[in-house]
Amino acid sequence: MEGAGFRKELVGKLLRLHFQDSGTRVSGDALQLMAELLKIFVTEAAVRGARQAQAEDVALVGVDQLEKVLPQLVGGHGGCR
Question: What is its main location (predicted)?
Answer without folding.
Answer: nucleus
